[in-house]
Structure formats: structure tokens, C-alpha cells
Write a structure and sequence with these properties.
By secondary structure, the protein is of the alpha/beta class. The protein folds into 2 domains: 93 residues, Urease, subunit C, domain 1 (Roll), CATH 2.30.40.10; 320 residues, Metal-dependent hydrolases (TIM Barrel, Alpha-Beta Barrel). Helices cover 32% and strands 22% of the residues. It contains 14 helices and 17 strands. Strands 1, 2, 3, 4, 5, 14, 15, 16 and 17 form a 9-stranded mixed sheet that branches. It has an 8-stranded parallel sheet with strand order 6-7-8-9-10-11-12-13. Helix 3 links the parallel strand 8 and strand 9.
Length: 455
């Protein structure tokens, strides 16, 4: 049952400013913001000295992902626990049908995977093939199922990937439906060719990974996508951009009026390709696509975020167990791709950008909450505003950095890629749909079920 909560004297992070104010939550909704007295019935939450942000949105996670190389370790229960613990209250995952499978059937099957979830959630519908029924099935997804975003992969053409010819058909239909197309921008044919050449190697796995998933492949593919986006007038969202020249091309297209959005992830500004030249064990931990790039590209992504050329920060959370990822005498081709991170996105972002005064709290909220809500049609999410859902995070700013190793990891993965990272903020209290779910930095034992969001 929703409580009435009175958050007193928080530093409230709004779209363009921070102000000290009280916030009233009633029946899961924000009903007052400003200077007013506590209603008699309300529970008092003293918040002097604490920053209040909207619950964050991670529009790119992979929970309970089934792959031929092994399944991801986090299901919707553990993945959403990790998200909540780090201040993310809404996630968007994926429906990824096998090629030639009916989209509506794939949607119904995917819903069965989501038995227990603690964040609110939605899904992107992946398009893995094109036949005479695909266009009508896309329309059904939008009109009937409330799914207004479609994911496509230009990599993985041996399984779920598509080519440019099919992508154009998807984009034309999405434009008719006023839907958005998300794209994994790598050249699948080139990747397949290089995997045949290098994929059976068992040594220098990290170097092999960068040889197969090249910078040039991503940049060239992004440029092709930009042409198609302009041609089809389709709203386009390029996921996990990892290259400085890729971002440069996207920025130039935006300046010409192309409806294009750029996403990146913490791994691309926190790390560089030195992770692949250390030990084989560490290199395998960082096998994900696209790979961690050079220091030059890492700095390019950092500058793009600072200069406002990135629209969202997601995680592409796809966690595996060490047992699944580190098999004895494994070949490159036998390693599943993915990294965790949904719990630590906001903490690492603050430490990298806000603590250093490269960006401010408002920028953090825009990139991790407000922009994803706008782009993906999550009404009543992503802002602290009257009538919006009461998904709220109270942050405690630390005088001394705390190692992320000391924070309870809610992911089931026993690979912790962020072990050397630190944070200068910790969530003190988190409210989800008007209910306190994290108090004094700890998840409550009993958490309310998250709700489906139709978009």
C-alpha cells in the first residue's frame, strides 16, 4: 500500500537547476514540491544535505538472456535488485526471437521469463528477419502491445543479425508507425570472416577480440546507418557507441536534422584496451561487443559526454558467471559476450563527471533518466515534477571515496569488472512507486513487484 511521504529540505535536482525544497508523495505520485508544511498523516523523511534525483532509467539491459554459448546469470529478479540498489527504478529489456519466428509469439514467450521483477519495465522488440508478415507484426507490437521501439543487429548475422536491405525495410515501417529503431552498429559479414580466421585461438583472447570487432567496422557501419536514417526519416538510436569517430559522424548528422540518438555505456569511458593486454583472465572478463577501445577512443567518448553529444548512458548489462565465461582451454568463439554494471552506473558517472565538475547533477539526471524517458516514451518517468511517478533517490555525498568492492553486489555474477572503481556518492534512501525500497543504503527484504509500462 502506498504511503504518504514528506521529504524535507532535500536538494532537489530538477531539469535545469537544483533547489532546496520539500517533496510530498501521495499514492505513488509526486503531488507537491516547494516550501510547505508536513501534512499530519505523512511520514517524515529528513533530507537536509542530501540530493534528491528521479529514479534512473536503464533502457539497455539483458536479463535472462539465452545464448548458444551459455545463459546470462541475472534473471529479472536479481537484475532488478541490482538496478534498484544503484538507483535505477525502470529498465527496458529485449524480446529476441529466433529468425523466422512470429514477433507476437516471441513477445508472449518473453513475458513468461518475467515472473518476479522489482523495477518498472518495458521491452524492445528485436527484428531478426523479414518476411511478408513482419510489417503487420510490427504494427501489432506498437498498437496492441505498447512496444514502440525495435532493436536490430547488424552483427551476429549467423543468428539474429540482419543486413542493410532488411534494415531499410524495418526503418520504413517504423517511420510509418512513429516508432524508433535501435541498432547495434558493426559489420556482421566482416566479423564472420574474421572469426573464421581467428576464432579458434586459445591465446591472446583480448587482442583477438579487438582484431575481430574493429573500430573501422563500427564507424563505417554508423555512417551507412546515418544515410538510411535520413533516407527513411526514421527515428534511430545507435546503441553502445564506443568510437570517437562514430560519435563525430552522429553529431554531424544531428546538425543536418537527422533524427538520430547516441547511447554509450560506462565501460567505454571508464576503461581502455589495456584490459586486453594484462592477463588472459582479465581479458576474458572484458569480452563484450563492441570491445573496450583504445585510450584515444576512451577520451573521445569522455569528451562527447562532456560536450553534450551523447543522449543517454545505459549499461548493456549482460552478466555471466565465471564458470560460463572462463572454460578450460576455451577458444575465442566459445566465450559469451557481456559485462555487468546496472548497479554502478550512477555512482561511477558521478565520480567521473560530477565530482570533477566536468558536468553537474542536472546533466547526470538528463543522461540517465530524463532523456531515456523522452526518447522511449516513458511518460511520468525521469523527472521530479508534479504528477510524475514517485521513483526517487536520496544521495549521500561522501567526503572520502568508497571502493565499489565494499558495496553489496546484487548481481549473481561472480565476475566484478568494477573492482578498482570508486564512488563519492551512495544511495541513502530509494523510493519506488511511493514505497521505500532502500533505506540506509540497504535493500528491504520484501520488495513490491514492478509494473509493465506500455509505450
Amino acid at each position: 500500500m502506498n504511503s504518504t511521504l514528506f521529504i524535507e529540505s532535500a536538494t532537489v535536482v530538477l531539469s535545469d537547476s537544483c533547489q532546496i525544497a520539500n517533496v510530498l508523495v501521495e499514492k505513488g505520485i509526486i503531488t507537491q514540491i516547494g516550501d510547505f508544511k508536513k501534512p499530519a498523516k505523512a511520514q517524515l523523511i529528513p533530507a537536509q544535505g542530501l540530493y534528491l534525483t528521479p529514479g534512473a532509467i536503464d533502457a539497455h539491459v539483458h536479463f535472462k538472456l539465452k545464448t548458444p554459448l551459455g545463459n546470462s546469470i541475472d534473471d529479472f529478479k536479481s537484475g532488478s535488485r541490482a538496478a534498484l540498489a544503484g538507483g535505477t527504478t525502470t529498465i527496458i529489456d529485449f524480446i529476441t526471437p529466433q529468425q523466422n519466428k512470429n514477433l507476437a509469439q516471441a513477445y508472449q514467450e518473453r513475458k513468461k521469463d518475467i515472473k518476479t521483477i522489482y523495477t518498472d519495465y518495458s521491452l524492445h522488440q528485436s527484428i531478426t528477419h523479414w518476411d511478408k508478415n513482419t510489417a503487420s507484426q510490427m504494427e501489432e507490437a506498437v498498437v496492441k502491445d505498447g512496444i514502440s521501439s525495435f532493436k536490430t543487429y547488424l552483427a551476429y548475422t549467423n543468428s539474429i543479425g540482419i543486413n542493410m536491405e532488411i534494415l531499410e525495410k524495418v526503418m520504413l515501417q517504423a517511420a510509418k508507425l512513429n516508432a524508433l529503431v535501435m541498432i547495434h552498429a558493426e559489420n556482421g559479414d566482416l566479423i564472420n570472416q574474421l572469426q573464421r580466421k581467428y576464432g579458434q585461438e586459445t591465446q591472446n583472447i583480448g587482442i583477438i577480440h579487438t582484431l575481430i570487432h574493429t573500430v573501422e567496422s563500427e564507424v563505417a557501419t554508423i555512417k551507412e546507418i546515418l544515410k538510411l536514417s535520413a533516407k527513411t526519416n526514421c527515428k534511430t538510436y545507435i546503441v553502445h557507441v564506443s568510437t570517437k569517430d562514430g560519435i563525430k559522424a552522429i553529431k554531424q548528422a544531428q546538425q543536418k536534422g537527422v533524427a538520430i540518438f547516441a547511447e554509450t555505456c560506462p565501460q567505454y569511458y571508464l576503461f581502455n584496451d589495456k584490459v586486453y593486454s594484462d592477463s588472459q583472465k582479465k581479458a576474458i572478463d572484458f569480452i563484450l561487443s563492441p570491445p573496450i577501445r583504445s585510450e584515444e577512443n576512451q577520451n573521445g567518448i569522455l569528451k562527447a559526454i562532456i560536450n553534450g553529444n551523447i543522449d543517454t548512458i545505459s549499461t548493456d548489462h549482460c552478466a555471466f558467471s565465471r564458470e560460463t565465461k572462463h572454460k578450460i582451454n576455451t577458444t575465442y568463439n566459445a566465450i559469451p559476450h557481456g559485462i555487468s554494471g546496472v548497479q554502478y552506473r550512477l555512482m561511477t558517472f558521478y565520480t567521473t563527471f560530477v565530482k570533477t565538475k566536468l558536468l553537474d547533477w542536472c546533466d547526470m539526471v538528463k543522461l540517465t533518466a530524463e532523456n531515456p524517458a523522452k526518447i522511449f516514451g516513458l511518460s511520468k518517468k525521469g523527472r521530479i515534477a508534479l504528477g510524475y511517478d514517485a521513483d526517487l533517490v536520496l544521495w549521500n555525498v561522501l567526503d572520502q571515496a568508497q571502493s565499489l568492492k565494499t558495496i553489496i553486489n546484487q548481481s549473481r555474477s561472480n565476475i566484478f569488472s568494477y573492482e578498482n572503481e570508486k564512488t563519492f556518492i551512495l544511495p541513502s534512501l530509494i523510493i519506488k512507486s511511493g514505497e521505500i525500497v532502500v533505506e540506509k543504503g540497504r535493500l528491504k527484504d520484501k520488495l513490491p513487484q514492478g509494473q509493465w509500462i506500455s509505450r
